[in-house]
């Protein structure tokens, strides 16, 4: 963990350093998720909410485009391959 980042978060938010460190750790872990892990997780979550694949693929593709480190355009075909092999 980057101590300078923790200090920055603590100073700019007013959080105690211990809480700022936990927030930084959580955010870094969230963005450490690979594209494949993200696609599989979101597919499971959206399926559990009753969405069908033809509704899921466009949504997951748009979510990937909005990520801080976006992988670039990902086709529905590639998304299916990630999930189903």
Question: Could you please describe the fold and organization of this structure?
Answer:
The protein has two domains: about 1-30, no CATH class; about 35-85, no CATH class. It is built from five helices and no strands. The chain has helices spanning about 5-15, 15-30, 35-50, 55-65, 75-85. The termini are far apart. Helix content is about 75%, strand content about 0%. The chain is mainly α.
Low-confidence spans: none
- Assess the beta-strand content as a share of residues: under 5%
Helix content: over 70%
SSE pattern: HHHHH
CA-atom Rg in angstroms: 17 Å
Mean pLDDT: 92
Task: Give the count of structural domains.
Answer: 2
Task: State the assembly state of the protein chains.
Answer: single chain
Class from helix and strand fractions: mainly alpha
Largest sheet: none
Tally of strands:
0
Shape: elongated
Q: What is the end-to-end distance?
A: 34 Å
What's the number of helices?
A: 5
Compact description:
The chain is mainly alpha-helical and 85 residues long. Helices cover 74% and strands 0% of the residues.
